[in-house]
Amino acid sequence: MKTTKFLFTALLFFFICSAVFAQKDTTDKITKFNNAIKKKLIEQVGLSEQVADKYLAIQKDFRMKIRNIAEKRKELKEYIVKNPEAADIGKKLDELFALEDEAYKNRKDYVSSIKEILTPQQIAKTMILQKETRELIKEKKKDKKKKKN
Asked: What is residue 96's three-state secondary structure?
């Protein structure tokens, strides 16, 4: 009886842990997406593989910085809206404005970095590629949403 109870408990624990720790592996999808973007940069924009890698690294760094700033801004805005009468509201507003300045500085640094490795024509072509990519992703999400419903 004790052995059966132990086995049942162990199996139950195993299944619960499996369900809790099972995560969808998206690294393959991300790698495929990045490779597809790199291929488009090489074919449509005319970048070498090395320049495409540099461009993608600069873009990834920029997006991470902007994402972090956006998260902090969101938290600050939520705090400000919920606590407009708080004693530290002036400090929180100053922090919010400082984040706006930081975002602007990061955008300027991003553009400067891109200008160092790309010609103006290549920058224009990457802008077109980014727009097309955003639209394609938007359509895929919309199609996926339709299939769920």
From this structure: helix
User: pTM for the complete prediction?
Assistant: 0.71
Average pLDDT (110-124) is 94
**Where do the H-state alpha helices sit in the chain?**
2-21, 27-40, 49-82, 89-117, 120-148
Supply the pLDDT for residue 54: 95
Total structural domains in the chain?
2
C-alpha distances in Å from residue 91, one per residue of 5, 70, 73, 83, 84? 58, 18, 13, 12, 12
CB burial string 80-90: b at 16+ within 10 A, e below = eeeeeeeeeee
Determine contact, residues 58/120, Cβ cutoff 8 Å.
no
> Does residue 71 contact residue 31 with C-beta atoms inside 8 Å?
no
Domain that holds residue 61: 49-118
**How many CB atoms are closer than 10 A to CB 126?**
20
The reply to whether 90 and 146 lie within a common domain is: no
Which residues neighbour 60 within 8 Å (Cβ) at sequence distance 6 or greater?
A: none
Instruction: Write down the residue that tokens 């769920």 correspond to.
Output: 148
